[in-house]
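Predict the 3D structure for this chain.
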Amino acid sequence: MSLRFLIVLCLFALLVQSCGYQIVREKGIYEGKIKSIYLSGFKNATFEPHISMYVTDVFGAELLSLGLFEINKPSSEASLEGLIRRVTIGPQTVDKKGIAVEKNIELEIELSLISKEGMLIKKWILTERETFRVDDPNSEDYNRREAIKRAAAKIARRFTSLIFMEY
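Done. Predicted structure below.
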């Protein structure tokens, strides 16, 4: 009985070890042709200071976290260019006196994936809205910056999911 049990146990162990899968085996997108992306600093077409730095940092971190690309390799197969087209800020919630307690910030970004030959592969225009508190004047600027970063992070995640769906 114990010999049969050991044989069954060994067969079960071999069976368990042979099962498994990988979701992504190859790196890159566009049928594996793009494995490295040069991410230049986003251009700012708004009056919001320092926004390009925040958005570029968020996109770089999101692309690195995917593990599909090498970022800013000297001879990258493609480049990702971003343009911050619009930032609008408006009241979201007001108190009894009509003074804004929360504001909305809406961020619109244009992204262009360009091959190393300079040909446009794909262009996206993505928009995201985020709410931030303004009832404390000492923290309003900080809250606005953090809302910009959160909106940019949502756009970056949406962009990476669009890449997966299209390629």
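Confidence is low (pLDDT under 50) at residues 21-25.
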